[in-house]
Amino acid sequence: MFVVAHGFTGAVDRPHVRRVAQAFARYGAVVTFSFRGHGASGGRSTVGDREVLDLAAAVRWARELGHARVGTVGFSMGGSVVLRHAALYEEATDAVVSVSAPARWYYRGTAPMRRLHWLVTRPEGRVVSRYGFRTRIHHRDWNPVPLSPVEAVPRIAPTPLLIVHGDADGYFPVDHPRMLAAAAADQGELWLEPGMGHAEHAASGELLGRIGEWVVGRAG
């Protein structure tokens, strides 16, 4: 069973999320959902903080459906969420794949991330996000600041962990996946994909197939 955690401004009905789900469906059952504040889902996005509760609910539902083995696959914001979920919820998942995730919070080192911070932190940016991207963002700052992805990674072992990142990612350069891999030490695996950009949009069918095979091989 695959539980897919989409990136910021994604949603269950977006074509790129559906394409990911269809690719994984060749390897097992798939649960997709929209994080809070995204698409038709209620509430407001906290951009990776309380979204861990949404993922936990989706994984519980997958278990309730009778699936004994569950792998989580997250992209970008969802990639950071699957890391924290695996760190905070003991035995919640049997394999974890984080694609195009940041290693640390508040990163503004690229132009796309500076634009994203404008969307999240400015009232006019949140209006653009609401009507342009169907994503409603909470106006409050994080309090407390959640466990960062790089802090979460060492807590995931012994659950199998795969970190996937493109070397042409315009949001998070390759120091991010390398930091995550270093934190995982010999308990994680890093795939640095040549020519790949960011998240679901950049994940080729071939890469999704390899991820599907990895999850089946590790989660059973």
From TrEMBL:
PANTHER family per the UniProt record, alphabetical: DIENELACTONE HYDROLASE DOMAIN-CONTAINING PROTEIN-RELATED, POLYKETIDE TRANSFERASE AF380
Protein name (database record): Pimeloyl-ACP methyl ester carboxylesterase
Keywords: Hydrolase
One Pfam family recorded for the sequence: Abhydrolase_1
Superkingdom, natural source: Bacteria
Family the UniProt entry places it in: Belongs to the AB hydrolase superfamily. FUS2 hydrolase family.
GO molecular function annotation: carboxylic ester hydrolase activity
Domain AB hydrolase-1 residue range list: 2-101
InterPro entries given in the database record: AB_hydrolase_1 (IPR000073), AB_hydrolase_fold (IPR029058), FrsA_esterase (IPR050261)
